[in-house]
C-alpha cells in the first residue's frame, strides 16, 4: 500500500466511519451473533499473497460489524459509557502515525511533555488539590495508564514499597531483612468495600497480598463511612493484620455512590496519627467513571473533592464519560517519587544523557509496561476541541437525562422503585411486588425482555447479595431525551405486561 | 465537530501524515529540543471555549513534531524498530471508531473472536508448536497484551498460582495454608539471565518475589545453555530456594542471542523429572523482537522453535518488527486455564448468559486490565495486506541489510571489531584500540559523535559489565541499502577522525 493507495483507503474508511456514526441508531444495540460465528466466515490461516484493500474493507461491514455491540448507540444504557468523539479519533490517527516505543523522554520528548502538561490541565479542570499537579510542592503529577485496573495495580505496588520502606528497620542484615519482609507480607492487607470495583481485588491477587472487603450499608447509600472503616481497621488490628492500602471510590460501579472522603481521613487519623506517619495507609481514589463530572463546579462541591489532598493517588478514565477513546486512564499521584522508587529498573541499553542527568520524566518508571503510545494527543485534542464549556454542556446534559429518567420512574410507583440515584447519570431501580422473590423475578424478567428486544441495552446488579436491580445509564453522547423517553416507555410497557402476567 | 467537519479534518490529517512519511528523511532522526521545551509553548490550562480544528492541527507541525524522535526514519538504527505501516494505521482508525470497553465476549463478540482467530493465524505463521493454538489439544491460545512487560507479568502471576496449586497440600486448614504460602513465597524465585530484558526483573519486583540473574558467557554467544542453567538450579536448591519461573529469550536486547531451548529443557528435566510434574518451572519465551523473524522458515529452523512445545508461554511483539502499530504484544499460552485460574474475578455487573454458560472466551481473564481495545483489527489488516510473502520479503530484506553492514564492518578491522552478529538485523560492534579502556573511550566517542550529527541514531550497551559497544539495527521499513551504506560511511569517517585524534 503506497501513499496514494493509503490516501484512497483512508478516505474510504473515514466515509464508512461517518456513515456508521450517522446511522448507528438503525442497528440493534447488542450483537446477536452466536459464539464462534466468525470462525466459520474466515480462512484458517493468513493469505500467502497480499490482498487488496477493497477486499479487506468489505469484510468490515459483512463480517465484523455484525459482531459489534455498539457502545456509541443512543440506546446503550449498560455499564458505563465508553464515549468517543471525532477529535479523539483524530488523536488516535496521529498517534498511530507517530508510532514509537516512547519509554524514555529522548524517545520522543513531545510524548512525555504533552502528557505532563495535559494531565496538569486535567487536574486543574477537575479541581484536584494542587498536590496532584506536576508543578506542585509535593512533586506530584499525572500519568496515562491503559485502564483503571493498571492504575490501581501501579498504586498498590508503590504503596507496598512505601509501607515496607517505612516500617522495616533499615539496620538489618540482608537475611534478617528478607525474613522481616516475608513475615510482614503475610500480614499486609488491602482494604476495599463490597462496592469497590473488582480491579482492587484483582490487583491484590496479582501482588499476592491479603484482601479484605468491608461491607457498606444501604442506609449510608452504599458509601464507605468513618464508623464502618474504623471498625474494619480495629478488626484488622485485633487479628494482627497490617492495612497498607485502601481504595476509596468516587462513583461505585453498582450505584455510583461516593465514599465519605472526610470520614475516611478521620478514621485513618484515629488509626495512625498524624497523617504522613510511617506506615500510614495509602488511599487510592477510584473515580474511573464519575470523576469526569468533576469538570463541573457543582460536582467538585458535592463530592468534596478538596478532601483528597490527604490521600495518595487518584484515577479517572477519560475513556469512559469524557469523550476520549479507550484507552486513557489518568492517574495522579501526590508524590511521583513513590512510583519511581517502586518501579524503576535500569538497563544499560536505555541510558541517555537526559535521563541519566535526572532532567526529565521517564514515564516507564511510573507504570508497569516499558513502552507507551502517544495517548496524550487525543486528550489534548478533546480538551481543546470541546473546551471547558463544551465539556460542561455534555456532562450536564447527560446528568439531566438521568434525572428526568429517575423522575419518570418515581412517577410510576405502581411498577417501579428507585433504589439509588439519579447519581452521575445512573439510576438503579427495580420492579415492585409482594416480597423480595417476586420483585427479583419481575425485575429479572424486565431486564431480559427489554434487552431481548434489541432496542436497548441495560445491565443489572445484585445489591446486598439478594436484591436484583437494573442500572440505567444515560451518559452516551448520541443519547437524546427522546431516546431516554422511548426507553422508559418500553420499560413501562414490558413491566405492565409482567404485572399483568402477559 | 460534526460529520462534515470531521471529514475535512480527517482528510487534512491523512494528507499531513502522508507528507510526514514521504519526507521523513529530511528531518533529523532524534529530536533536539531541550527538556521543558513544550511547557513554554502551551497555555497553562485548557481553553474555556472550543477551538477550531485548523488551530489545533497547525500546532502539530510547529509544536509537536519538533519534539518527536522519528522511529520510522530510515536512519533510525537504535534499540529495536517500532515499525508501523499504512494498513496498520487503518486498523487503529477503525478500532478508535468502534471504541468500547470490550472486557467480555458480549461487549463485542467480534473483538474477542477476531483476536482468537488472528492469533491462531500468527501462531501457524511463526510455526509455533500446535499446543499454542486455541484449537490445539492442550487448550492453548493467544491474547494481545499491551507490551512484553505486561505479557511476562501475566505469565508470572499464572506461574505463581500454578506452582502454589501444585505444591501446597490441599488438605490444610485456611490458617495452615496461609502459613505455608507465606513461607513458600519467601523462597520462590524467578530466574533470568543477565541478558534477559529488564521486564522480567520488573515483574518479579511487582509480585514481590525473589529474582536471580544467571550470568551467561561470551563464549556461548551470550545465550543460556544447559550447564549454566543446571548450575544455577543447583545453587537454588542448595540455598533452599524454589525456582518457579524462567524467562528464555529468542533475541536478547543487547545482542539478539537465542537461548538454547533444548538445553534448557534438559537442565529442567534433570532438575524436576518428568516435565509436567507438580512444581515444574514455568518457562516463558520472550521473543519480543526477533520472534517476528519466525515468519521465515529459515529462522524457524535456526532457532529450533519446535523445542518450545515443552515450555509454557511465548510472547512476540508485532509492534516491533512486524509492521503493526504499538501496541500489539502477542502472548501465547499452552493451557489457557492457567491464566483463568490466576486472573478470574467475578463481579455481578459483568454477568451475562454467554460468559456464565462457559461458551465463550472472556479475555479479561487472560490479562491484568479489565477493558480492552480492538487491537486484532490492525494485525488482521497487516497479515492480509502484506500476505505471508510480503512479510517474508520485508524480514529478509532487513536481515540482508544487517548482513551487509556486518560485512562492511568486518572489512575494516583496522577500525572495528564485530562483537556479535549479524543476528536478526542487529550487529554489535566496537572500535579497536590498545586495551579495553581505549576501545571503550573510542567507541563511546564514536557513538556520541555520529548521534550528535543528527544524521543517524544508534544506541549502545555494556557487555560483560565493561565492554562498551554500539548496537546497529536495520529493521526499519523505510531503511534501504543506501541508508545503511551512508551510515557505515559516516561511522568510518568519524572513527578515522577518532583514530587520528581529530
UniProtKB/TrEMBL annotation, chains A, B:
Record-linked Pfam families: Pyridoxal_deC
GO CC annotations, alphabetized: cytoplasm
Chain positions found as N6-(pyridoxal phosphate)lysine: 320
Needed cofactors: pyridoxal 5'-phosphate
Biological process terms in GO annotation: amino acid metabolic process; carboxylic acid metabolic process
GO-annotated molecular function: carboxy-lyase activity; pyridoxal phosphate binding; transferase activity
Keywords for the protein's UniProt record, in alphabetical order: Decarboxylase, Lyase, Pyridoxal phosphate, Transferase
UniProt-listed InterPro entries: Aromatic_deC, PyrdxlP-dep_de-COase, PyrdxlP-dep_Trfase, PyrdxlP-dep_Trfase_major, PyrdxlP-dep_Trfase_small, Pyridoxal-P_BS
Family in the record: Belongs to the group II decarboxylase family.
Protein name, entry field: Pyridoxal phosphate-dependent transferase
Source organism of the structure: Rhypophila decipiens
